[in-house]
Each structure stands twice: as structure tokens, then as C-alpha cells.
Amino acid sequence: MKWMLVAAGLLAATAFVPSQAEAGCVSGAVVGGVIGHLAGHHGMAGAAAGCAIGHHRRVMRDRDYGYNRYDRRY
Known about the structure:
There is one protein chain. By secondary structure, this protein is an all-alpha fold. The chain has helices at residues 2-14, 20-38, 43-64. It has one domain (2-64). It is built from 3 helices and no strands. The longest helix has 22 residues, at 43-64. It starts with a helix and ends in a 10-residue tail after the last helix.
């Protein structure tokens, strides 16, 4: 039951993310936290790594599409 509350809280937190670069971090942190938890109760380390990877992938995708941080298309 506790994990359902945590999952609902994380899902609600992702709804209020103001920018797309941060959205990459949040979605990566959620996935990394879940995988880290399942791989030996290392949820925080997984969340930190997932945030870094998610942010990096979002920046690379924005760069590939020609967006810059001042001209975001939401």
C-alpha cells in the first residue's frame, strides 16, 4: 500500500514540472528510482542516475530538433 502512495505522489509531482528539461530529469528519476529499488533497494542512487540521464537525453533531443533554451516549443 505504501508503494502505491509513493507512486501516486511521484505521478502528481510530474504533472507540475515547469520546463521540458526538468521533465526529462523527473521522468528519468522516476524510472531510475523504480529500477534501482528493484535491483537491490538502491532507489535513491537509481533516481539520481535516472535524473542525470533523463536530463542529458532531453537536452540532446532538443539540440537535435534545433531548439535552444530560449525558444522552447511546449
